Protein: ABC transporter
Amino acid sequence: MSANRAFPKDRAEDKEARRRFPSVWLLILPYWKTKEGLQSLAMLACVLVGGWVGTYVSLWLNRWTGTFYDAIGAQKFVLLPALLTSFIVVAVLNAAQMMLAVALQSVVEFRWRKWLTNWMTEKWLERRLYYRIERDGALENIDQRVADDVRLFVHDSLLLTMGVLDVPVRIITFAIVLWNIGGGMKVTLGGSTYTVAGYLVFAAVVYQGTIFLFTHLLGRRAITLNAKQNRLEGDFRVRMVRVREFAEQIAFLRGEQTERQNLSNSLNKVISNLFSTLWITTRVAFFTNTVGHLGSIVPTLLVLPRLMGGNLTLGGLMQSNSAFGSLTGALSFFPQVYLGFASWRAEANRLREFLAVEVVTENVGFVVERGESHIVRGCGLLLTNADGLELARVPDFTVSPGSRCIVRGRSGSGKSTLLRALAGLWPHGQGTITIPSSGMFFVPQRSYMPSGTLKAVVTYPQDESAFRDDECVEVLRACGLSAYVDSLNVVDRWDGRFSGGEQQRIAFARVLLAKPNVLFLDECTSALDSQSERELYTLLLSSLPDATILSVAHRRELAELHEMAIDFSSGSTSEPSEPDQNGKAPHLPFEDRRGLEKMPC
Ligand SMILES: Nc1ncnc2c1ncn2[C@@H]1O[C@H](COP(=O)(O)OP(=O)(O)OP(=O)(O)O)[C@@H](O)[C@H]1O
Structure:
């Protein structure tokens, strides 16, 4: 059974439960081990070296600031043209380097996102995980996880990693500069005078540390609110998609009022959460803006005694201000990282929930025997739900190669679930299933109509290039869809265009193209009138005379086209016992009556 658990959100929750989820490294490492990943790694190395060169350029600019303002202070205007020329050259080169770094990092981000999304999509589709997730309600908003969470996870991972590798170099560099420029501060305490060396560095750390502390106190709730926002936006989108998907059903039922109410409730939650977030971000913004203004005068105030004592030139003042700004700017990475890391962790946890479903193996309760012959057999089959509660007991049956068997029973008695179990889509139950190793084709109650050309619809799940146009035209005509043969290469939303009955005719056309050896039909003529139903069945039987067929159907008329019946209501397997329209025993059209052979379980 799939894991139907969300990642523990609360720290107090069981640590063991957290450990059961796959490590975040399972999301990160696979890409960087590929050839493309190694190339991306080389690009990131260039970005990082570029960042360090940028730090050196900032250092150069800091020195330039000192020289420039000293020249102005000393009224040596003759030096200005050369200083300005060198400034413009360095500024242009620096801008080019920064632009290149942003572009390179974006390229890596796009490549990693593409790879990871493909990887997740493959995991989603492999071993029918997409079906298990929906069947068991194991995860919400899987589309949001594969599309949005992967994009954000990749973006934030790169941003945080590059910052962690780049920022310490900037911090150390400007701390040294500030230490040297700022000199020491003389403090008189208890009659003794002490010199606090590098006091501007300590001031920068205390200044930025205070901002960090207050940002944390004022804004920590934003982390949980942001995570909640993603979920609420996803829920709202899913509701909208469902209205689009079931537009006709809602329109027939006049369900607009209820849908409007549901959408409005969902939107209210989104907006209410946004308001809560807004209050927090506003007070954080107010605080950081106020402190930000202070930041421009704090270093000046700190060096004022030296300036007044004549120990600092105008250039020195500007240089220390610039170094103080650079250092606090580099230190401000940590408050940002703190919030960014929380978002990153929420994104990673949602993806880890997805991987957890993937690694849990299906607890298949059935013994499945696969044979070379086209026989279908069920022995001692008990169908249960995921909690082990009984849904249905299936009478033992053997449908021998080339035979046709009808499955009957009251609505909700478990007929479709039996077909799911035979298709390997229903793991809950016990007993032995014998099916062929290949050549099976299942037609569900509602056929899937992919978007694209009509030819792609008819040939699904095979690629449309696998069949010639004339083959498709022939089966469309045979199935009563002559009106559409000229639209074979027309792209449309065919699910909206075909009537329910026409969609079922398409399903028959698919079967005729696929020519399976063993065919399972689940009430796939329910939308057709009796005559059309009979015509399609007769067409099918004559086109696939050797196919083993197991049909779930309610209509009595269909029984006489089958040689045997599995009856869920009476709990027996027999030849059809329903009387025909004249009240006579049903006519069995197949003289050898292969389906009635007694075969031991
Ligand atoms: N994914 C599911 N999870 C839990 N129970 C399910 C699930 N799918 C079906 N069931 C239950 O299994 C039982 C049998 O359903 P099934 O669809 O097999 O009936 P059926 O005989 O095909 O009905 P009908 O003739 O109306 O199509 C029902 O009670 C249904 O609620």
Confidence is low (pLDDT under 50) at residues 577-599. The two ends are 27 Å apart (CA to CA).
